[in-house]
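User: Predict the full complex structure for these chains.
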Amino acid sequence: MSKALLSEHPGTPAASMDIDYYLEKWRGVEGNLIMILHQIQDTHGYIPRELVMQLDRALGIRLARIYEVITFYHYFKLVPPGKHHISICNGTACYLKGAANIIGEIEKTLGVKEGETTGDRLFQLETVRCIGCCGMSPAMMVDGRVCGHVKTTDLPEMINTIRKNEEQA
Amino acid sequence: MKKITPATLEAIASAPVNAPKNWIKVGLDTGGIAAGARYVFDALAGHIAYARHPISLLRTGSNGLSFADPVVEIECAGMPHVLYGNIHVADTKTLLDEHIIKHRILEDHVVATRDRGTKCEGDTTVILVQDTSAEQGDRTRFFQDSFIEEVRRQGLQGKVQVVRAMDMGIYKKGLVVQLLPSAVTYENVLAANISEIIMDTVKKGIVLEKLLHREPDPQVRIVMRNCGRLDPESLDDALRHGAYQGLKSALLVHGWEKTIGVMKASALRGRGGAGFPTWLKWKLTRDNVADQKYVICNGDEGDPGAFMDRSVLEGDPHTVLEGLMIAGLCTGATKGFFYIRAEYPLAVARIQLAIDQAKEAGLLGKNILGSDFEFDAEIRLGAGAFVCGEETALIASIEGKRGSPSPRPPFPSVSGLWGKPTSINNVETLAAIPAILCRGGEWYAQYGIGESRGTKVFAVTGKVNLAQLVEVPMGVTLHKIVYDICGGVSNGESIQAVQTGGPSGGVIPESLLDTPISYENLMKLGSIMGSGGMLVMDSNNSMVDVARFYLRFCVDESCGKCAPCRIGGYQMLQILERIFKGHGKADDIPKLKRICHAMQNASLCGLGQTAPNPVLSTLRYFEAEYMAFIEGGVTYARKIRKQLEGVGQKAS
Amino acid sequence: MRAKSENNSKEWDRKPANQRDAMIQQIIKAKINGTPVEVPAGTTILQAAQQVQIEVPTLCKHKDLLATAACGLCIVRVKNMRKMPRACCTPIEEGMEITTHDSELTEVRRTVIELILSNHPNSCLTCGRNTNCELQTLAANFGVRNDNITRYVRDLPKDASNGSIVIDFTKCIKCGRCIQVCQEMQNVWALSFLERGINTRMAPAGDISLAESPCIKCGQCSAHCPTGAIVENDETATVWAALQDSNKYCTVQIAPAVRVALGEAFGYAPGTNLTKKIYTVMRRLGFKAVFDTNFSADLTIMEEASEFVERVAHGKGTLPLITSCCPAWTDYMEKMHSDLVDNFSTAKSPQQMLGAMAKTYFAQKKGIDPAKIYQVSIMPCTAKKYELERADSMNASGFADVDICLTTRELARLIKQSGIAFNQLPDGEADSILGEYTGAATIFGATGGVMEAAVRTAYYFVTGENLPKEGIDIHPVRGLDGIKEAELDVKGTKIRIAVAHGLANVDKVLDKVREARDKGEPLPYHFIEVMACPGGCIGGGGQPYGISDDLRRKRTEGLYQDDREKQLRCSHENPEIIRIYKEFLGAPLSEKSHHLLHTSYSARPKYQR
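Assistant: Here is the predicted structure of the three-chain assembly.
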């Protein structure tokens, strides 16, 4: 989400567990729930249950409603994501050019299915719809960096490189 | 910033544009950035500052030529105006040294202008060459050498540069040559023509009619008129390109009632897919009396492979805002929302900036342009639910609920956001509106056929050679888009079918590509216009696989509220998976058809009603492939899967 | 006296006001299957079809609720319309020509039913709704004969975490009725939809267990569920075991609302009062003593009316007094409105009072060891199961007031298991000393009934005389309006009362009280009656299936008729009540009464996790 939409709180720790931190801009605004959830997720990478309970108390939006919304929208996560984000583009262009094979290969390499996190919490595997690089299909994003014209044969090494860097660090 | 008044707009409209003369523009849209444009921009900035080049570096959105990302456009004194494609960081220093210092064009990067000339005025300084029928071996270098030789022979060396182009925008027309700056373009040039081209056209300015590429550019840019041209983060630049002139005439010349009349004359229909007349939507909302009304810009573009709305939001945000304001004026709404996918952070940031700028300039708020019109706009983010493109689901989502559609009636024009009359228009629709207001409904309606008027933007991707955004008048054939604008398919394969309308659409076989595009014609073929995704498939693609892909998308994106869509889609997908794995049964096809029929009729919203389309249309044209899977069993399925697996390796 | 109503507009309250007003007068003419219909504008095709004796099939639309348009079965064909609109949510329009049934519609509906069945366990024979399930009935009616769509049912464990209702998520067809009931009708928000698409599931709030959720056990979800996804916790087997146990002295009590609803399970018209047949069947089932909760309803009134008089006339305690005989309501209040704990009547509910008296007074009189008494209650309510263990004071006598509670639906099942031909039974009588009741007690089962009964007795306590015969029916508190208000003149003193049922209506009443309290203004009410279920106990979550306003009215009428036919219509006139105070309790609000017949309330967390 754009930083322009976030309220600026220079003095507050980045990952605040205090719901008021997320409410300043949105308290009293109709239909604020999704925007608040966006802010929480932007800050934490997921939506901690504790903040949901605080939200129930602070705004009177019922827990039932909040979870209905969180679990409906795929953008929102209830568990912390893995450290490195691997997003395989599964837009039409990439699909036609073999995204399914790439997904299959990377699932095999990481040992997790799409939407899951590896046991060591190092990798988060997602498939996304069209990252806007149809000219470079099949494409994927690793930690926000786009890799175009991906080949299945390149994948294991790519993962290994990240693993090695992590081990060294 | 100074407040914008009608007089300010008047002055900008009548006075010549006071824009920089020497500039480099980099396409900084999501696609461009993904391809590295941000790094290119930074590198160029570094070189320019270091070498103190007397040139301004500007940012712009995408001009639609996705295949050429990252793109850099240069206007520099003493050089023809040139668009470069596929410029990476490593190319930046060379580019500046060559183009700005040495006044030489870079080889293999020029995307030739589609704005082709018919007269050759002024001295030709550059000859672009490209062999557009390169299947039997690329003869471009041979011709380049021949031209260089001829240039030298005729004593023009040092005055005329011969450059290999990256793309000419013309395909299967042999050697194509474009002379710059006149942009006179010749096709099917033979070795024998070289000397006369130099002799007559380059030297004397005589155009060789027999070689001239006469066909006008099939594209007409209305929605994308400013994309890739203006700086999307500058209100000044937007104003220079005519922003808010449409609002001014709607507000101060026409008034809401006549503005609706102009929209009626334009015959503009909703570009989100369903094609409901825009003027009528506004009128219905206007007719409902309420203390508060809303207009919403639907920027929840979710079709896999469709990215025109994103490009427009990123490339020309003020025009979309202006369109929304005009919608507000006509419907009586004082509040507008942009509902944009959270996956489009750049679009969100640019729209937010446009809103902030417009507020500061007094274009949003009370007494807009000195009138009593009041309007405010805000952004709400989507959160990864395709179904939120459906109007009632979108409203639920803005209200902070699950994005499940609700039954209509009541229609949003009666009871929409928070129960108030609401008009929802798609990004592309809104972007066309200011232009219509400036140039008239009849002007817009001159384009198109039958009930489908004006232009439509398509995102052409898949196996096509040159994936890009295309804006064409309605009535242009699919064939023209796929072959003449996007260069057909690569690797010498043939096109098997084109899919339009995304997950709600259907496939159209090669044999029917001559059909002129209109809402009605696509419907007749079992597909839909949809939001404008266009997927080109070659003979290596499996239609069962494609149906499976789209259906899986719909199953993932079903909101789960109504049984026919929730269960029907899932069960159909199981059957398709079974067929695709070679375990299909004889009665699977009638069973698929029966579920399709139930889903079409008993689903609550458009998503469920149209989700069977990819299956039905592939069954309609390619039932033989389904039968081959069922009869061929596992052996056949394995063969096809192997063929598809090969695709990943062949891709680059 | 004045009365006003809110909450009566369901189908069309989504329309903006300007249209709503216009719609009131307008009459629409259309044709359904060629038959002309004339209906007020805003009527849906589904409702209009019912006027010409056509039931369009639906699994999601419930008469109590707004259309969710979820099931897709009620599609119809309208001439010159390309799409098939849903009858449940499409208002009929002038000149419409509607076809509700033809071969294509039937085929589409059958396919949709098959799809729903493919996502539903094939376990009809062992289901709580077997033979009484809306999905099963439709599958039978549409002649679904083969199972040719591969079954996919997500593996989800049952939730039996609270003792009142059991949810089998796999049987849920996602019609959304229970969620609408829980969120909008009851404002409890214990249930919600989670996830989406084929993974959509109904689940307690925030994906916790029902026991950890704000669930108040009212059971309205189970009363509205079309399938066996939500059912009461069936405890008939425990009761059988107790009846077999020679160490147990089994006694039973029957709640007011049960007598006018049980008959529905045996083919009687709704509202038929079967009190005397029920007494007989209880004895035949083996209960050694048969009591009537109506007796203790009279007792409750004695205590509660006294409490009211204390608070109003003597300023002892907080006003307004709020009734507390509905355990779903008390649970709700403790979770959501705990700032009003002091306003609650401390009088126990009739169920608990009867139990306490059975194990003390009755045991003493009959010389039975109270430890051996096994008290069974028959209630229209699932929350009554919860009330048994609600607080320590439910064991004030040293024994559980009531040992087990069965709902009306379970009783019907118990009777059917016994093989007793209920319809042919002769009338019987209840046991004396805890069986006699007045008309005031029997109307406890309907919304406004507790208020009416209390007013009859409070009037007597204050003035020393009974309400005049023509004034004994207090009409402003009767009927199905969600909130009923009235001002009573008790010999010059104005008493303002309010009655709310359906918990969403309660919040509005309580907000008024709070507003006045916070501003220091005069109280809007002195006495408030609250029942969690719309219609009161006759519409309870444990009653026979098929609830609707029509059914509520018929059951209610059965109770008012019982009241009218009673010689004695005020609780303080009940001779057995007079006797119990004389022989055992002393006086209302005496120390003994306080010990055995009163309880206390305190705040509870909304979420346990």
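Chain B touches chain A through 62 residues (CB under 8 Å).
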